[in-house]
């Protein structure tokens, strides 16, 4: 689970890469859930929330950049 302080320290490129990795993981988890092979169901929720954290941070950064 990504902490918001850890995410704030990352650059925009690192955040985009992390977002891509999490989206791939979410895709794989959905497949595992559909085939009843999901070992840790709580991971789906964690990944979704981490994706939301990154998107929120990216939106805030772009809004701050536009305001300057």
UniProtKB/TrEMBL annotation:
Tell me if Ribosomal protein is a UniProt keyword of this record. yes
What is the residue range of the signal peptide feature? none
Q: What's the superkingdom here? A: Bacteria
Task: Please give an example of a GO cellular component term from this record.
Answer: ribosome
What residues form the membrane-spanning segments? Answer: none
Q: Does the keyword Ribonucleoprotein apply?
A: yes
Q: Which UniProt keywords apply?
A: Ribonucleoprotein, Ribosomal protein
One Pfam family, short name please?
Ribosomal_L29
The protein depicted here goes by the name: Large ribosomal subunit protein uL29
Q: Please tell me the species this chain comes from.
A: Sphingomonas immobilis
